[in-house]
Write a structure and sequence with these properties.
The complex is a heterodimer. Helix content of chain A is about 0%, strand content about 50%. Chain A contains no helices and ten strands. The radius of gyration of chain A is 13 Å and the shape is globular. Chain B is mostly beta strands. Helices cover about 0% and strands about 55% of the residues of chain B. In chain B, strand 9 and strand 10 form a beta hairpin. The mean pLDDT of chain B is about 95. Classes of the chains: A mainly beta, B mainly beta. At the A-B interface, strand 5 of A face strand 4, strand 5 and strand 10 of B.
Chain lengths: ~110, ~110
């Protein structure tokens, strides 16, 4: 199945700073899905991107899908303590093609 | 909609014992997934079912692990015999084809 690599694994920021996590693939992806897992919780779907160069926003979160559909990013503006958690990217082909989550990016916010 | 329901929420057992984790997917979803999460390995896909049929179990660590889905509303993941290295959070998730995954709250397994 299709695999995506995510960086960084950990990111410490001061509250109010911006945060970005990146997903990269060696192959063209049909889509990218982003999930967030709060500490002690379960992954929750955030968004899916399918179009080349697509940009979507959810309040302070901006999601991008690269022009070549091989990479994606999640950017959070002015982080808040509620943003703490692990952010995962994955890709969904037919059936469960892909759907590997890996270690994600752990966002740690210092007040 | 109650979402994906997993039981138990916590399980503490001794090495060598049999452990059974249970999952009720969202009604109407035809895909069911079992994941294991640890700090070292992240969120790993163990097995998934489509219309109650196991499609890919290549992520199942070894023969001690088995999963069944006897009907569209119930699945089990069994570990026999359990070992300390099986300690992890086990998630069940369900979805419709090519759609987002809905995760259950997970089962925190501790094998002593």
């Amino acid at each position: 199945g299709q695999q995506v690599m995510q960086i960084p694994q950990y990111q410490h920021v001061q509250e109010g700073e911006d945060f970005t996590t990146y997903c990269n693939s060696s192959t063209t992806l049909s889509n990218i899905q982003w999930y967030k897992q709060r500490p002690g919780g379960h992954p929750v779907f955030l968004i899916q991107l399918v179009k080349s160069g697509e940009v979507k926003k959810q309040k302070r979160l901006t999601f991008q899908f690269g022009e070549a559909k091989k990479n994606s990013s999640l950017h959070i503006t002015a982080t808040q303590t509620t943003d703490v958690g692990t952010y995962f990217c994955t890709t969904r082909g037919g059936g469960a093609d892909g759907l590997t989550f890996g270690k994600g990016t752990h966002l740690i916010i210092q007040p | 909609d109650a979402g994906v329901i997993q039981s138990p929420r916590h399980e503490v057992t001794e090495m060598g014992q049999e452990v059974t984790l249970r999952c009720k997917p969202i009604s109407g979803h035809d895909y069911l997934f079992w994941y294991r999460q640890t700090m070292m390995r992240g969120l790993e896909l163990l097995i998934y079912f489509n219309n109650n049929v196991p499609i890919d179990d290549s992520g199942m660590p070894e023969d001690r692990f088995s999963a069944k889905m006897p009907n569209a509303s119930f699945s089990t993941l069994k570990i026999q015999p359990s070992e300390p290295r099986d300690s992890a959070v086990y998630f069940c998730a369900s979805s419709s084809v090519a759609e987002k995954l809905f995760f259950g709250s997970g089962t925190q397994l501790s094998v002593l």
